[in-house]
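Field log, afternoon session.

UNIT: design team B
ACTIVITY: writing a sequence onto a fixed backbone
BACKBONE:
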């Protein structure tokens, strides 16, 4: 059995490539990397990789993570600049006993040592958006304002499971700000015995609930992927409402060792790519906890 799930419509083309690798017998690690690299390399996706929207100082600062569910090893980078494919660097760091999570200049030096390509990640479009937004830089930041993390979970025919994430973070974020995406247990978690999960949305909220670890823990106790996503999200939202806050902007995905997938969201619609056994397609979840439904790209026009 092989399966793959990835966040947002922007993931679909890469997910088809990654799923094709799984169908041909490749590893979950290769499938996750291929899927995310496709998104990182597309400048039209302004929340990931090349063309990502800058922080308030005009720098495109990238975060990524990669976790192997068999060994529970992870690799990650945060606040890294000029690395063409942060997910490849995160994968290269995965497996180290120490120095597996690197930031800033140290992460860029590691990319050089691994022979990974560097590039200026800024595009003219992204810098024009930044220049136009500079007068607004003190306004309240929110997720999904040009910000959508690509998260991918994969299962291969040998039972290997991997989770990966990549993002340029909140548009106009403070210099040095890091969200949940490279933080194990919050932005992602993977244990091949029980399942994998990942999150996209406002990282500051996601980290408050350690949501990805919570989802995998629920699956360990027997919950199906969709049920685990919904229960984890419901618990955090209930606490936020108790504190007088709104429910926030959070979307979650999960994958079980038998190839079942699930998702939950606080949004009115959350598109994601998913497939198991022989087909991958675009699906959608909604904030009412309705059954997941298969959708077309045309139906999701205007969604990330």
């Amino acid at each position: 059995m092989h399966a793959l799930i990835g966040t947002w419509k922007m993931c679909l083309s890469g997910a088809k490539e990654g799923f094709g690798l799984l169908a041909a017998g490749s590893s979950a690690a290769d499938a996750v990397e291929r899927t995310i690299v496709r998104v990182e390399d597309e400048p039209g996706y302004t929340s990931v990789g090349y063309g990502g929207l800058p922080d308030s100082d005009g720098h495109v600062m990238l975060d990524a993570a990669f976790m192997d569910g068999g060994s529970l090893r992870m690799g990650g980078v945060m606040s890294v600049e000029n690395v063409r494919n942060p997910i490849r660097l995160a994968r290269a760091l995965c497996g180290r006993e120490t120095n597996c999570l690197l930031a800033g200049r140290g992460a860029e030096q590691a990319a050089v040592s691994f022979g990974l390509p560097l590039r200026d990640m800024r595009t003219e479009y992204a810098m024009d958006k930044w220049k136009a937004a500079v007068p607004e830089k003190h306004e309240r930041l929110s997720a999904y304002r040009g910000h959508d993390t690509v998260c991918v979970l994969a299962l291969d025919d040998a039972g290997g499971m991997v989770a990966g994430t990549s993002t340029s973070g909140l548009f106009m974020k403070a210099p040095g700000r890091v969200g949940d995406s490279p933080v194990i247990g919050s932005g992602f978690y993977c244990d091949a015995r029980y399942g994998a999960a990942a999150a996209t949305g406002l990282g500051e909220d996601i980290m408050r609930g350690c949501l990805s670890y919570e989802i995998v823990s629920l699956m360990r106790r027997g919950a199906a992927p969709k049920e685990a996503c919904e229960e984890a999200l419901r618990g955090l939202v209930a606490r936020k409402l108790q504190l007088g806050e709104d429910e926030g902007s959070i979307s979650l995905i999960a994958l079980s060792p038998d190839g079942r997938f699930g998702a939950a969201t606080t949004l009115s619609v959350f598109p994601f790519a998913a497939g198991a056994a022989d087909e991958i397609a675009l699906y959608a979840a909604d904030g009412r906890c309705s059954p997941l439904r298969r959708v077309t790209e045309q139906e999701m026009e205007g969604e990330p």
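LOG NOTE: The chain has eight helices and 13 strands.
NEXT ACTIVITY: expression trials, pending approval
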